[in-house]
Every structure is written in structure tokens, then in C-alpha cells.
Amino acid sequence: MRSRVPAAGLVLGVVCALIIGCTADPPPATPPPPPPMNPAPGASGAGDPYYPMDGNGGYDATEYQVGITYDPAKGRLDGDTTVIAKATQDLNRYNLDLRGLTVQSVEVDGKPAKFAREGEFELVVTPAEPIRNGTSFRTKVLYGGDPSATPKAGGSENGWQKSKDGGAFIVGEPHSASFWYPVNETPRDKAMFTLNARVPDGWTVISNGREIQKTAANGWTTTSWQERTPVAAYLTTVAIDKFTVDRMALPDGTPVVNAYAPGAEDRRDTGRRLPEIIGFLSSKFGPYPVDAAGGIYLDEDIHFSLETQTRPTYAKWADLITVVHETAHQWFGDSVTLNSWSDICLNECLASYAQWLWQESRDNENLDDRYRAALEIMRGSTDFWKPKLVGMGAGQEFHGVYDKGILAVHALRRKIGEGAFARLLKEWPAAHRNANANWADFEAFTIKLSEQDLRPFFDAWFHGTTIPPDAELLPGTLRG
């Protein structure tokens, strides 16, 4: 006798196959091989017309995770920084910018990499394996030294400086970040920024963005700051001092952190007006473009204050109108960042005019009268009219943009009319939020918005080296 179960099972299997197509899955298709790589070195400069070796090519930095330990008593900085980037070509070698400090080791994606120093500030990295175009990769650099000993670039006040009471701070334009961490130091490559700074107990660390963590152990305090809005390298900062810190918030909850170095506490009333200033500027320029605010108030006689992103750094002499200027840069310079240093008027001409807007609103100042008074004083000064506001030449970036630039923007306001000018101040930063732009973009944008032929105006005011003709010098209500 035979069991009937196997036969029944066979019939059931045939029926199953007929009804639902029970068949074995075909083997998966073999994926095509990746295209061959053609690795080459990334460019050793980003191509700025004035500072061609600044920055690098072959990749796009997306985030800096900067770790430092700094002992003010010794003046030594030890760094552990990871640069997260995406390759824009097949890479067998690429550069970072780092000034002065000694590099101990470099890893790429966890593997030891060869490195060399070239020129004034090039850190050349050769990974163990080539990096494919489009691939994200991580470069970890251990380094250290006395950052204040590094020769300054672009002026005596660009770089790491010790404060009079023993702390330290970093400001610089166009060079700043490369004095204390490895970086792609070009404003064209904005990235997120995180700082973990370890200092002896009793010292306070202030930086960009929001404070996300603070821990203490064994006599040292580690503070973490994070700026998630992409930031140009020169706008990152750290300040270490025995600060008095005031905390508050904007009406929408945005945190405000003001830090006052010893000797700067008398400016706390100025700092407390920041919500008012941001509210006013937002009414002119559109929503505040970053998610933190505040200021770092130094007791140092440096010659400039700087619009370090979210939290400008102020010199000893800085007053309320300086706070207006540096806060305006959060729109013009920080959110909308220049493409090249020849485009500096995008930053300074517009932020300087914010001072006039504030005084027009708060002090009831007649800006046409102020313009005419300045014109009477400067009409015969060849030195005043000589600096170009665009394409001025290396080392001349900050000549003219603060004074001639204000008059130029006011003349533009009268040339295109109140309605178009009000739209320009809001629509320009909205169109280029968290991006880069050049001066030619601004001219084209303004011409399109105003529906006027402004080329003679721009040529006379921004590209010219003599007093503009009366048609451009006294447009609209300025004719009197």
C-alpha cells in the first residue's frame, strides 16, 4: 500500500502554480560597474581675483566640527577638527587652509592620510584611496600651537589675539578661520559650523549660533555652540574671557546671548536694545535670516567691529549705530554673501545705509538734507570720489564703501523711487538667502525690479572714480 498524501500534494502544487504562478524568483540583475575614476588634485585656490590662493577646489564643504582646547595661561591651542565635504570631482589630493599651527595627523574617512604643508597656508591632504566625484567624505585633523604667534594676514588685526585680561578672541576679514582650524577659506563655500571648546574653569566661551551643551570635569569646562545656517568661514568666531552674559529672546523665541568682557559691562544697555534693532531692520529687510542673535562686546581698541554670524564682535569704541550696522550685515554679508572680495559693496554699502535708515526713523533725520550737506563738503575732494565701490583692487576693498557707498545707496533710492527701493531691500536678500551673489547680480536685479535703465547710474557711482554728473548725483527729490 502507498500513501496518497504525496500525490495530493503534487496536484495541489500544480494547481497552485496554475493559479498564482508559483515560480522561483529570477536571480537579481548584476549592477553595472561604476564608471572608471579619473582622480586628479583639487585646485589649490578658489579663484578670487584679489586672493587667488584663498580657498580650494575639488570639493564643497558642508560642515565643520571644530574641537579646541585652549589654556589662556599658556596661550596654547590644541585642535581636533573634522571637515565634512562632498567631492565635486574625482580626487586623489586636495587642500585645506591652515595658518601657522603644527599638524600632528590627518585621517580621511577613518584611514590615515598623507599630508604636507605648502606655501603660506596650504595643508595638502592625500587620502589612502581616491575619492569619487559626488561622494561625501570626512577629514579629521589633529593640530596645535600658539595661534597668536602666526603672522597676521591682511592687517595687524586679522587673526587670533590675546585680550588685555588674558583671554583670547578671533576676528578678521578676509582671513580669520584659517588661524585656528583647517578650512576651505573662501566665502563661496558656506557650511554649517559646530564648536566644542574646552577651557579651564572660570573662563567662558562664546561663539556663533546656539549654545547646545556645557559640561565640566576635572577643572575644565567644555561648551558646545552650533550654527546650522550655512556660514562663510571668515564669519565664524570664538571668544574666551571672563564674560558677563545676558540672555533674552526675540518675540518669536529666537535666543539672544550678549557677552561683555571685563570693562565692557557699561554697554549692556546698548546690547539690550538688540530686539528693537532686529525688529526695525526686519521691517525694512524682511524676516531675520538666522536662528540666534546677540553680540560679543570686547574691551579692546581694535579698529573694526565684525559681523560674525548671529553674534557680531564689537570693539571697545562700538556704539548703538555700530550695532545697527553689524546687525544689518546678518542680511547683507552673512545671509547674502559676496562671491568675491571685489563685491564687498554688497556687504558694506548696504549695511552702512542701514545706519541712515535707523537715524531717519528714530531721530527723524531728513536724509536728503544730510546727503546735500555731505555733498557740499565732499564735492571738490578728488580723494573722496576716487575709490571705486566695485572692482576696486586688492587691498582697497574697504576704501569708500562706508562713506561714498552711503551716498551712492541714497542716490539709488531717489533714482528708482521709494516703492521700488523698499521692494529692493526686501526682495534682494530673499532671492539670495543663504547663498552667494556678485555685484553684477545686484545691478541686474535692480534694473529688472525698477524697470529703469540704470547702467549710467551704476557706472558713475559704483564703477567711476570722479564725482558723478548731476543727472546721477541729484536724482529725484535731491534736485531740490
Automatic annotation (TrEMBL):
InterPro entries: Aminopeptidase_N-like_N, Aminopeptidase_N-like_N_sf, Peptidase_M1, Peptidase_M1_aminopeptidases, Peptidase_M1_dom, Peptidase_M4/M1_CTD_sf
Location of region: Disordered: 27-56
Catalytic activity: Release of an N-terminal amino acid, Xaa-|-Yaa- from a peptide, amide or arylamide. Xaa is preferably Ala, but may be most amino acids including Pro (slow action). When a terminal hydrophobic residue is followed by a prolyl residue, the two may be released as an intact Xaa-Pro dipeptide
Gene Ontology annotations of biological process type: proteolysis
EC number(s) from the headed UniProt entry: 3.4.11.2
Biased composition (Pro residues): 27-39
EC primary class: hydrolase
Alphabetical UniProt keywords: Hydrolase, Metal-binding, Metalloprotease, Protease, Signal, Zinc
Listed cofactors: Zn(2+)
The Aminopeptidase N-like N-terminal domain, residue ranges: 63-235
Pfam family, one: Peptidase_M1
Gene Ontology MF terms in the entry: alanyl aminopeptidase activity; metallopeptidase activity; zinc ion binding
Signal sequence bounds: 1-24
Domain Peptidase M1 membrane alanine aminopeptidase: 321-461
Family classification: Belongs to the peptidase M1 family.
Protein name: Aminopeptidase N
Organism in which the protein naturally occurs: Amycolatopsis japonica
